[in-house]
DNA sequence: GAGTTCACTCTACAGCGGTTGACCTTTGCT
DNA sequence: AGCAAAGGTCAACCGCTGTAGAGTGAACTC
């Protein structure tokens, strides 16, 4: 493809096509999941030959690994006091998915995390356990580990309902509404079990 | 297959092999998702020729439709007072997934609900919206619809973390521990927002 | 300005997987 | 017994998809 821009250095060309391929791949993986996206479709969308995709990323697995990613969680998740955790976690979720590139990468990971072994491992060990650890560190009292795990599960359920399944009331809600409804819920997890 | 039982009527034979195929299919779909399970594998596991599967269920989609299902929710979900909803919902979830056949059918549906169009539709429109409606009917106050939707999202997140992704602290917890940790959380959603 | 390198394309292979139609074999009816 | 029907098998087709290898033309080097 390479629009009619002139005088592109070789490396510049390479970077552009590589970026184009990656963008198409992210979109395809985020939309259709790993199994349903074909190298050919990605290549066509990027205006490129299928074989070129292989040359750049080695294999479909390699392309997926480069496309599906979970950006670092915000520092606020790690440093927040228990009382501030709910807000920090929701902010982290919202900003992560609204980011244009990172959002699709995150969606691509989630989309396949129930059916693709590597995506499942990343989701379980990296995303969920990191989340859990961050929350658990701030918790006290009994069931701290389980409460942290449930915290992570809730965030995952919300993300999937809002961005992947697109369940009506959740995917249409504004950020404010979500804060209003979800934060009290998370607070019930984070606060030491009253009584 | 057809173990060495004697004198089976034709219809009886048919029922048995059909049941064997369905059991294998449920297991395969629940374990690997729609795209990764092959008719051939299902047939082999059931000790049957692949073509027979087609004859019984018409197509892979038909087999999936027969395998992935979401049993009716317990009446308690529909008749519970708001204060009892959390317990009813958790009981519904736990008993649904521990049921030997229904559990795999439910897992099969969830496993593919992010990547298979029909499964996604069923999950969104039937499961989530029914759940939401049941909860919403019991709620009052502002954001009732959204709170009901978030309620459904939380249940989905828990199910996936526990039965599909198998995230450590959540999948190892006993029913009692889950009740102890999750119910207060749901109560925060169900109770009218205490200003 | 000639040769090399590198991005890129074309063509083809090989395997898999859903699906089909012809065939066999046992059951049930008369 | 004999015929029809239904459960079940076998072999094959056909399209798709990941992947590999040879080739091409433009960009860089000297």
Polypeptide structure, described:
By secondary structure, the first copy, chain A, is mainly alpha-helical. Chain A folds into 2 domains: 10-67, Orthogonal Bundle (Arc Repressor Mutant, subunit A); 75-190, Tetracycline Repressor, domain 2, CATH 1.10.357. Helices cover 75% and strands 0% of the residues of chain A. Chain A has 11 helices and no strands. In chain A, helix 8 packs across helix 9 (144-164). Chain A is elongated. The model of chain A is unreliable at 1-5 (pLDDT under 50). At the A-B interface, helix 1, helix 7, helix 8, helix 9 and helix 10 of A face helix 1, helix 7, helix 8, helix 9 and helix 10 of B. The first copy, chain A, binds a DNA duplex (30 and 30 nucleotides) through residues 8-10, 13-14, 17, 38-40, 48-52, 54-55, 59-60.
């Amino acid at each position: 493809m390479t629009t009619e821009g002139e005088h592109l250095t070789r490396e510049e060309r390479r970077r552009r096509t590589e970026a184009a391929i990656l963008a198409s791949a992210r979109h395809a993986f985020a939309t259709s999941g790993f199994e349903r996206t074909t190298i050919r479709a990605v290549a066509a969308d990027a205006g490129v030959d299928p074989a070129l995709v292989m040359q750049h990323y080695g294999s479909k697995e390699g392309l997926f690994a480069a496309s599906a990613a979970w950006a670092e969680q915000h520092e606020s998740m790690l440093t927040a006091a228990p009382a501030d955790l709910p807000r920090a976690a929701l902010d982290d979720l919202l900003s992560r998915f609204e980011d244009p590139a990172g959002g699709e990468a995150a969606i691509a990971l989630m989309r396949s995390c129930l059916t693709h072994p590597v995506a499942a491992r990343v989701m379980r060990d990296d995303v969920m356990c990191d989340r859990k650890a961050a929350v658990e560190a701030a918790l006290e009292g009994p069931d701290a580990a389980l409460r942290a795990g449930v915290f992570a599960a809730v965030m995952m359920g919300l993300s999937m309902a809002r961005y992947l399944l697109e369940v009506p009331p959740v995917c249409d809600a504004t950020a404010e509404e979500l804060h209003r409804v979800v934060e009290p819920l998370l607070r019930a997890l984070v606060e030491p079990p009253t009584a």
